[in-house]
Specification:
By secondary structure, this protein is mostly beta strands. It is built from one helix and 26 strands. Belongs to the pirin family.
C-alpha cells in the first residue's frame, strides 16, 4: 500500500531506547487512499514512529463497496521495507514488478519484501464481495538486509493458537506462544490477529524484551485494563511477561511487537533509507521511469509519481522527539 500524501512529512525513526510497561493511546488521522478508500493512519503518529521494526499501520473499513470500485492504489515504489497485507473482509489483487499476480483474501498473508527496489499496485477485483476491512503494515528492514533482492510471498495457511478462555490467535509474522509464521522476517518481531469471544478474561504470554502495541479491529475489548474502540492503537512499551485481555463482546485485535529497532532511519513517502541522498536518488529513479523499480504490468491506469521533496535535507534520527 502507498502513502498517497502529496506533502509527506519526513519520519525520522529508530534508535534502541527501551521503556517499561506503559499504556499510551496513540492518535490516528484520516487519510484518503486511492480513488475511494479512506484509512485511519495510526503509525507513524505525533507520539510514536515505530513499534519494534513495525513502522507504518493503516486500518481501513469496514467499508461497503458493493457499488463502489473499492481499493484502487496505482503502481508505486518501495525500498528498504516489507509490506504486510491483512484482511478481515474483502479481497485485494496484488501486482508487482516481479510479475506476481495474487489475490489476497481474509486471514491470508500477503508479504512483499522491497529490499533494494520494487513497485506494486493493489486493487479490489472487479467482481468483489460487498465489504472491505483490513490493515496494511510496513516493517523496516535492518541495514544488513535492506539491499536484498525483492520478493513476494503468499501464505494462505497460518498457524492458529487456541489460547483457552475464549482466545484464539493467528500468527501473521514472527512467533507467538511457540507457533511460528512461515513469513520471512529479518528482525525479532511478532504480528498476530487475536480473536476474543464475548466474556473472555485471560492473559497472553509475551516477550519482556519486546515492545508492543495493539490495534482494535472490531468489537469492544480491554487491553491491560484500557478499553479500546475499533480503530484505536494502544502502545504498551516493554517489560511485560503477559498481557491481560478482556472482551465484553466478540472482538478482534492486532498485536504488533518486536525488539526496539536499533538503527536510525529516514522514512519518507514509500521509501526507507538512512540519509537524504538515498531517498532523493530513489525518488528520481522512480519518477524518471528507469529500470531500478521495474514495471507493474496489467494495472488499468497510470503509475503514481513521487511528490516533491521537502525544502530541507532529511536527517536520520533516533526514536526520541
Amino acid at each position: 500500500m502507498s502513502n498517497l500524501d502529496l506533502q509527506p512529512v519526513p519520519n525520522l525513526c529508530g534508535g534502541n531506547r527501551r521503556t517499561g510497561p506503559v499504556r499510551d493511546l496513540q492518535p490516528g488521522k484520516q487519510v484518503p487512499l486511492g480513488e475511494s478508500t479512506v484509512v485511519r493512519r495510526l503509525l507513524p503518529n505525533l507520539g510514536r514512529r515505530m513499534v519494534g521494526a513495525w513502522c507504518f499501520v493503516d486500518h481501513y473499513g469496514p467499508d461497503d463497496i458493493a457499488d463502489e470500485p473499492g481499493m484502487q492504489v496505482p503502481p508505486h515504489p518501495h525500498m528498504g521495507l516489507q509490506t504486510v497485507s491483512w484482511l478481515h473482509a474483502g479481497e485485494v489483487l496484488h501486482r508487482d514488478s516481479l510479475g506476481s499476480l495474487q489475490t489476497v483474501r481474509p486471514r491470508e498473508l500477503g508479504l512483499m519484501t522491497s529490499g533494494r527496489a520494487i513497485a506494486h499496485s493493489e486493487e479490489s477485483p472487479r467482481a468483489h464481495t460487498p465489504l472491505l476491512h483490513g490493515a496494511q503494515l510496513w516493517v523496516a528492514l535492518p541495514a544488513e538486509h535492506r539491499h536484498i533482492a525483492p520478493a513476494f510471498e503468499h501464505h494462505p495457511e497460518l498457524p492458529v493458537i487456541a489460547g483457552g478462555g475464549g482466545l484464539s490467535a493467528t500468527v501473521i509474522l514472527g512467533e507467538l506462544a511457540g507457533a511460528a509464521s512461515p513469513g520471512t522476517t529479518y528482525s525479532p518481531l511478532v504480528g498476530a490477529d487475536i480473536v476474543l469471544a464475548a466474556g473472555t478474561d485471560t492473559r497472553l504470554p509475551v516477550e519482556p524484551d519486546f515492545e508492543y502495541a495493539a490495534l482494535t479491529i472490531s468489537g469492544a475489548c480491554e487491553i491491560d485494563g484500557v478499553p479500546l474502540a475499533p480503530g484505536a492503537l494502544l502502545y504498551l512499551g516493554c517489560g511485560r511477561a503477559e498481557l491481560p485481555l478482556r472482551a465484553g463482546t466478540d472482538s478482534s485485535l492486532l498485536l504488533l511487537g518486536g525488539e526496539p529497532f536499533a538503527e536510525d532511519i529516514v522514512m519518507w513517502w514509500n521509501f526507507i533509507g538512512r540519509n537524504h541522498t538515498e531517498i532523493a536518488e530513489a525518488r528520481t529513479a522512480w519518477n524518471d521511469g528507469g529500470d531500478r523499480f521495474g514495471t507493474v504490468h496489467g494495472y488499468d491506469g497510470e503509475r503514481l509519481l513521487a511528490p516533491e521533496l521537502p525544502p530541507v535535507r532529511l536527517k536520520p534520527r533516533g526514536r526520541e522527539r
